[in-house]
């Protein structure tokens, strides 16, 4: 396996660096006692992560529970379109059979509802016509009374009074004539008395009838007819109200029925769509890879695979939304690391260094710290991303492997730091001289 070259120090240089001098300050020394690394090198743990990953789920909506019939082993190389997970079909077929029967019943119920709705509309027409007819009859009755009946009742009462007066006049005239006639003829006194008595009674009866007619006529004109007019007006008003209410009730009932009909139609169409979707999901019970790569079981979080080995195997029960596999492409890679807040204080973007895979300690990969998260993703855990400056395609490094990343500050930072340390040293010497 290729290794990345590094500069070897000569034995003489190492010996020279190891000799302590009386002129060197302890703070200016780049090497710590017993350590071959510079003091300011920061070592963090990282994980090799693929830049391109694809999470695989069943993604079904109608099928909630699935049983694995077969699944590729963890880490299997796959190509685009390769079958990676197979599911059992028995329970799904039973679900489809039940859904098909439910859909048939729903279709019958929907057709019955459509027929009932047509009958409802026809009944609505008849009810509206009946309401319009009742209102028209009430209007006609009112118009008849105002335009004809009221005047006729007044004239009839007046005519009845007039006839009563005429009857009295006739009876009185007949009585007067009989009295005059009986005074001139030779009829017997007994016959005169009988005829005159009858005529007198007729006059009295006519007078009584006239009295009754006068009272009846007065009542008819002053009481009966006004009351009748009010009754007709009230009847018409009630008819108008009844018509308005019937019209409102019919519209309200029609609107409600229309809403129920649309809802039932939407439910039926939704059931049809769900059944078609269920059939489509049945045809998709074999999951395939959307791209070329390595098939890892489960979810990969910040480049890390699960700490526990995968339990996905034949007869495993899984949900439709569960992440079953993650297809990772071996190249290109980057390193995702988690640092503490104390380590964060020593880091800044642009720092360069070396990544050493724990599985291949002889392979050193040049890297650059690309980004550091602004906020922790968990308590005292901050994510940073390290880019790899060399190709790793010829190595055995794969996504999910762990590594140690050693980062050194940039030259500008070293210069700035050395100036700060030198200034602090000078200040310390001055204070020592004063003392």
Summarize the structure in words.
With 435 residues, the chain is of the alpha+beta class. Helix content is 52%, strand content 19%. The protein has 5 helices and 14 strands. β11 and β12 form a beta hairpin. The protein is rod-shaped.
CATH topology (level 3) name of the largest domain? Helix Hairpins
Low-confidence stretches: 1-35, 414-422, 431-435
Quickly give the structural class: alpha+beta
Content of β-strand: 15-25%
The strands making up the biggest β-sheet line up spatially as: 1-10-13-12-11-14
Rg value: 57 Å
Helical content stands at 40-55%
Compact summary:
By secondary structure, the protein is α+β, with helices and mostly antiparallel strands. It contains 5 helices and 14 strands.
Task: Give the SSE map.
Elements: H1 11-18, E1 42-50, E2 53-57, E3 65-71, E4 76-78, E5 83-87, H2 90-184, H3 189-283, E6 286-288, E7 293-297, E8 317-319, E9 323-328, E10 333-339, H4 341-344, E11 352-357, E12 364-372, E13 382-388, E14 402-408, H5 411-434
Antiparallel strand pairs: 1-10, 1-14, 2-9, 3-5, 3-8, 4-7, 5-6, 7-9, 10-13, 11-12, 11-14, 12-13
Helix pairs in contact: 2-3
């Amino acid at each position: 396996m290729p290794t990345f070259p590094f500069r070897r120090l000569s034995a003489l240089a190492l010996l020279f660096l190891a000799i302590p001098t009386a002129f060197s300050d302890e703070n200016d020394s780049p090497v710590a006692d017993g350590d071959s690394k510079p003091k300011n090198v920061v070592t963090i743990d990282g994980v090799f992560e693929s830049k391109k990953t694809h999470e695989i789920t069943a993604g079904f909506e109608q099928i909630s529970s699935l049983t694995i019939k077969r699944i590729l082993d963890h880490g299997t190389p796959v190509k685009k379109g390769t079958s990676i997970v197979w599911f059992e079909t028995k329970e799904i077929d039973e679900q489809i059979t039940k859904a098909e029967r439910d859909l048939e019943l729903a279709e019958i119920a929907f057709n019955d509802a459509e027929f009932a709705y047509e009958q409802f509309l026809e009944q609505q027409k008849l009810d509206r016509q009946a309401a319009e007819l009742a209102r028209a009859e009430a209007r006609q009755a009112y118009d008849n009374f105002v335009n004809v009946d009221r005047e006729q009742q007044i004239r009839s009462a007046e005519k009845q009074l007039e006839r009563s007066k005429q009857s009295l006049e006739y009876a009185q005239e007949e009585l007067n004539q009989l009295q005059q006639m009986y005074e001139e003829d030779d009829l017997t006194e007994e016959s005169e008395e009988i005829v005159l008595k009858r005529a007198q009674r007729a006059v009295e009866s006519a007078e009584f009838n006239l009295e009754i007619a006068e009272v009846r006529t007065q009542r008819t004109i002053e009481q009966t007819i006004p009351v009748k007019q009010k009754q007709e007006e009230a009847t018409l008003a009630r008819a108008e109200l009844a018509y308005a209410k019937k019209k409102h009730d019919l519209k309200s009932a029609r609107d409600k029925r229309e809403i129920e009909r649309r809802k039932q139609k939407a439910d039926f169409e939704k059931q049809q769509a769900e059944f078609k979707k269920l059939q489509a999901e049945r045809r998709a019970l074999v999951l395939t890879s959307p791209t070329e790569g390595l098939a890892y079981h489960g979810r990969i979080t910040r480049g890390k695979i699960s700490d526990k080995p995968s339990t996905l195997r034949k007869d495993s029960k899984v949900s439709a939304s569960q992440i079953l596999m993650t297809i990772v492409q071996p190249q290109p890679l980057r390193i995702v690391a988690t640092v503490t807040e104390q380590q964060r204080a020593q880091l800044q973007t642009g720092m360069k260094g070396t990544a050493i895979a724990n599985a291949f300690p002889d392979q050193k990969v040049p890297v650059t710290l690309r980004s550091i998260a602004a906020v922790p993703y968990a308590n005292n855990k901050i994510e940073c991303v390290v880019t790899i400056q060399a190709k790793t395609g010829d190595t055995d490094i794969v996504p999910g492997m762990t590594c140690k990343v050693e980062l050194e500050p940039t030259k500008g930072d070293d210069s700035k730091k050395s100036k700060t340390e030198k200034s602090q040293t000078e200040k310390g010497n001055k204070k020592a001289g004063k003392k």
